[in-house]
Design a protein that fits this description.
The protein is mainly α. Helix content is 45%, strand content 4%. The protein has five helices and two strands.
Length: 93
């Protein structure tokens, strides 16, 4: 998204990126199972109705969008180290 914005902004002469996503929908889709993907798509569709009136998207936990492949080791790490530092981010694809 930053790369796309940099391409449109004439003030930007160059941009560097490591691990850029070329297709955000595909990248996010591959993190979800059918149930969580369907739920996310429904939330995004529902968010499009009030967003023009309210002026912003629904605020949600970033882990609702970027899903982790949790196992016993990563689940403990995420709970202890990541979730306490997270601020909500707008839902938007």
């Amino acid at each position: 998204m930053i790369i796309a914005e940099a391409a449109e902004d004439l003030r930007v002469a160059a941009a560097a990126c490591l691990n850029s996503l070329t297709d955000g929908t595909r990248a996010v889709r591959n993190m979800h199972d059918e149930e969580s993907w369907s739920s996310l798509i429904s939330r995004i569709a529902a968010d499009r109705v009030p967003r023009p009136v309210v002026g912003r998207s629904e605020i949600t936990d970033p882990w609702d969008i970027v899903r982790l492949n949790l196992d016993d080791k990563t689940n403990g790490y995420v709970v202890r180290n990541c979730t306490k530092h997270l601020a909500p981010a707008p839902v938007s694809l």
